[in-house]
Amino acid sequence: xxxxxxxxxxxxxxxxxxxxxxxxxxxxxxxxxxxxxxxxxxxxxxxxxxxxxxxxxxxxxxxxxxxxxxxxxxxxxxxxxxxxxxxxxxxxxxxxxxxxxxxxxxxxxxxxxxxxxxxxxxxxxxxxxxxxxxxxxxxxxxxxxxxxxxxxxxxxxxxxxxxxxxxxxxxxxxxxxxxxxxxxxxxxxxxxxxxxxxxxxxxxxxxxxxxxxxxxxxxxxxxxxxxxxxxxxxxxxxxxxxxxxxxxxxxxxxxxxxxxxxxxxxxxxxxxxxxxxxxxxxxxxxxxxxxxxxxxxxxxxxxxxxxxxxxxxxxxxxxxxxxxxxxxxxxxxxxxxxxxxxxxxxxxxxxxxxxxxxxxxxxxxxxxxxxxxxxxxxxxxxxxxxxxxxxxxxxxxxxxxxxxxxxxxxxxxxxxxxxxxxxxxxxxxxxxxxxxxxxxxxxxxxxxxxxxxxxxxxxxxxxxxxxxxxxxxxxxxxxxxxxxxxxxxxxxxxxxxxxxxxxxxxxxxxxxxxxxxxxxxxxxxxxxxxxxxxxxxxxxxxxxxxxxxxxxxxxxxxxxxxxxxxxxxxxxxxxxxxxxxxxxxxxxxxxxxxxxxxxxxxxxxxxxxxxxxxxxxxxxxxxxxxxxxxxxxxxxxxxxxxxxxxxxxxxxxxxxxxxxxxxxxxxxxxxxxxxxxxxxxxxxxxxxxxxxxxxxxxxxxxxxxxxxxxxxxxxxxxxxxxxxxxxxxxxxxxxxxxxxxxxxxxxxxxxxxxxxxxxxxxxxxxxxxxxxxxxxxxxxxxxxxxxxxxxxxxxxxxxxxxxxxxxxxxxxxxxxxxxxxxxxxxxxxxxxxxxxxxxxxxxxxxxxxxxxxxxxxxxxxxxxxx
Length: 866
Hints:
Helices cover 40% and strands 15% of the residues. By secondary structure, it is of the alpha/beta class. It folds into 4 domains: 2-13 and 32-190 and 354-445, Rossmann fold (3-Layer(aba) Sandwich), CATH 3.40.50.2300; 193-337 and 475-522, Rossmann fold, CATH 3.40.50.2300; 539-589, no CATH class; 608-861, Up-down Bundle (Rhopdopsin 7-helix transmembrane proteins).
């Protein structure tokens, strides 16, 4: 019969009912026992579920079944009143729809497919007849339908009303599973399931719950979750210990229910996310009740996280289960604000409020636990209903006086339709005139409303902005509710937070943790739901084989790497300008070092260099002052002065290597070091050669007399310097020095310096200086038998030996050390080698000049060694 009725709807166009052709009163309109009709120029349809009937499946539509109410969801009645309240406000507001009255037609779907089909077809039938697809009498115009549907029947109902292009606003679990590619647009009165799951992710991350269970009632929803949402949970570091559906475990007997109960309630995981609708909630209650009866040990506490459609609605006929199972539950609810005048409207509700209200009598009996004498479901043990009972006297868990998220959604949906109607009638000047003075609407069709509803945006009486996005989904957030239960089977839901997915990620969720009451199992401490303890900074995670990715071991970071946060997947290397601390938990900025005048080493070297330079300058002044003395004249004063000046420059050259390296100083260091240090070497060589030639040339018949003089000394010095200049030019051309930053030689320091020459250039330079020193030593050795008074050779030899030892020790050490120690070694080598020449060549002469002047005479200079 259902298929027959559906074929009528789909195949036949709307027509005027002819009683001869079709008996408009053939079917009993009382098949829908709970409905509420209020006439108006335009009708808004409503499909809700408040009751569940036990209907014989063999009953046909040709005869009404006997009413056998099995369960009533008392709180759902507030949604009916919210729709009535919204229509009442709109009709009283002459600014919104002047000269137009809205009516409504609300039918109960009884939370089953057959009743939902019947309610849908009733919306497109006359008021007192069940004649789908026909217009009998003066049938009012159905412009929109607000539907609370479950996912298993949503598509069929949407297709039925979509045939007439009627505007549909759907809420309930159907709003999650609707096809986005509907030919006729269907609007969701709440954000879809993807947004809700993202809110759940934010909630889990806030409490650091990374190991959870996910449960749903059917395999279809589970497969959808695996495909679309599982990757997003994984990207946020959340893994699943349980991923099951009721249907996957074939829960149809108490044995399988007990198996399922043990699997979820005795598992170590503490947080369970349950997706479904009100029927899923009833199924879960049955499973928990069956499981508790079949086990004797104490039940582990769980933190249930329920979606918006999972409601703990009071049912007077279903009270044989322990409500404490859901103590501490966190649930999502549509965001709501109190509406001005709504509580007064509820308080004024009584049996005489509306005779057309088909919901109120059964609601009254179940809410107040009384009975009417005419009730077919009369309970002899109950007191008689007086009709004067007050809704505000009911406990909050039976009937809340504050508006619920579902009622708030229905209220906003009605106002959305009203604003769209206003925009449609004001779309042109002719309609505006009709709206102001006439009451003719026959030219308006429901399909015209879609265009205006898409662009609809308004602020409701609570100040919230109501609009729909490009997918036809309500732009709204979620409230987070905490369920607090009591031993007398009562409960309250306390708002403890909110999720706003339009906000920035860091501001998407706000929670008042202090207001949350947890399950007694957790002793009022924040529950933990992690497979493994957090890895402390300094450690990284290593996944356990065969376990979810959130189950891991913690291993220390390898040398040179750090982890600065908890639960890092891998340790990382510090930037080049930082180094790991001792615990490998953070990176410390490296200290920038160079040989500076501000540190003890730099100051000591500078003082030492200046002291030697001062001594050299004093020796030079001493020799200039005594330039006429024999000991000065006999040793070639020009070479002596040249040697002293070059030594003075060598000591001052050391100061160039102290301070922050710059490009100019790097080049100048290289040139000064190479050339200035060649001058004293060449001067010593020239001095030695001059001494030997001077004594050799005095022998009878010697031909070397012509070589003795300044020309030979100058030639030796110039040739030696020119060769060094060539080496420096090659170095600057091939590998020019420039400032470099050494970040790797030392773990805790960044060394600033100049680019060092290649080992080949260093060795060539050292070889050249060694050659000059060895030649000087060899020549001086030839002069060892000369008279003592004239004999500088022994002092030159000794100074050159020291000079060679210093630089021979310098070369291998220079190639192995790093940092400012390399610069310090170079300076100390410069000072030591220069000081050796100064001390061993000039101090004996200074001693004679200052303390043994009697030896500084021509007579003494002519003495021969005996």
